[in-house]
Write a structure and sequence with these properties.
The complex is a heterodimer. By secondary structure, chain A is mostly beta strands. Chain A has no helices and eleven strands. Chain B is mainly β. The chains are: A mainly beta, B mainly beta. The interface between A and B is medium-sized, with 28 and 25 residues.
Chain lengths: 113, 113
């Protein structure tokens, strides 16, 4: 079983809809949670960053962490065709020099005009 | 300001051949990482470096070697390529560790026949 699970999709939505993405994880030591966005044939770029539990909002994007359920979510409101990409969750147990990120497999999102 | 560049962009190797992938950065970041990305597997860390002259193993280091003789360059070597090393390779950099924003290069698509 993978340490971080993510539905590969594709998740197809009409323009303007809310996109809901999630990851589940098994390591209760994870404290730092990130969402990276990756356009086709490009490198990933950091989208959202959350520490421990709770919500974080940035424009049309909201990240949620539920550590009791080992579950994180990313919501995209008023989705646009430019949001079509693969979204990768990533997490780490500590903020230290030698730590590493564990990535989910990514969910491909298609926003249709 | 190019950020993170990777050379080459594409390469086809025969089993047993060797090659070196170059990652170069102009952001003066201490940390550099090599990942491989395979369908459904997300990003998996191969090796990383926390500063000039240092290297450390990641999640999947077997079959790869690295060197960081200069702060701005991180080299990934395949001594004897195998078909299982067919993948997309990404280099990333960060300022203070894996949980800081990681900036990724554009990737190298490698096929081993």
């Amino acid at each position: 079983q993978k340490e971080v699970e993510q539905d590969p999709g594709p998740l197809s939505v009409p323009e303007g809809a809310i996109v809901s993405l999630n990851c589940t994880y098994s390591n209760s030591a994870f404290q730092y949670f990130m969402w990276y966005r990756q356009y086709s044939r490009k490198g990933p770029e950091l989208l959202m960053y959350t520490y421990s539990s709770g919500n974080k909002e940035d424009g049309r994007f909201t990240a949620q962490v539920d550590k009791s359920s080992k579950y994180i979510s990313l919501f995209i409101r008023d989705s646009q065709p430019s949001d079509s990409a693969t979204y990768l969750c990533a997490m780490s147990p500590i903020k230290a020099a030698g730590n590493k990120l564990t990535f989910g497999g990514g969910t491909r999102v298609l926003v249709k005009p | 300001n190019a950020g993170v560049t990777q050379t080459p962009k594409f390469r086809v190797l025969k089993t047993g051949q060797s090659m070196t992938l170059l990652c170069a950065q102009d952001m003066n970041h201490e940390y550099m990482y090599w990942y491989r990305q395979d369908p459904g597997m997300g990003l998996r860390l191969i090796h990383y470096s926390v500063g000039e002259g240092t290297t450390a193993k990641g999640e999947v280091p077997d079959g790869y070697n690295v060197s960081r003789l200069k702060k701005q360059n991180f080299l990934l070597g395949l001594e004897s390529a195998a078909p299982s090393q067919t993948s997309v390779y990404f280099c990333a950099i960060s300022l203070q560790g894996a949980t800081d924003t990681q900036y990724f290069g554009p990737g190298t698509r490698l096929t081993v026949l």
